[in-house]
Amino acid sequence: MKTDLAAEDALRLNVLLAGELLAVRIDEGAMLLYALTPKGEARIGLHPNCRPDLYLMRVRELLGGHALGSPGGYPVHLRRWTRMGQASPKNLAALLQLGEPEAVTAVALAPTLDDELARRAWWALPTMEVARYMLGHAAVRRDSMGPVLADFLIEHLPFEQDPIQAMNSIRAVIGADLLDAAASEQLWAKAKRRPHYLLGFLEHRPDALPASPARTLPTDVLAQASAGEPWASLLARCYAPSGQSFLAAVELVMEKPPAHDAVYLLLDIVGGYFAAVRRLDPPPGMTGASRREAEAMAALARLSNADATPILSRTSAVGPLMRRHLEPLFAPLLQHLRVLRGSVA
Question: How many CA atoms lie within 13 A of 185 on its CB side?
Answer without folding.
Answer: 3
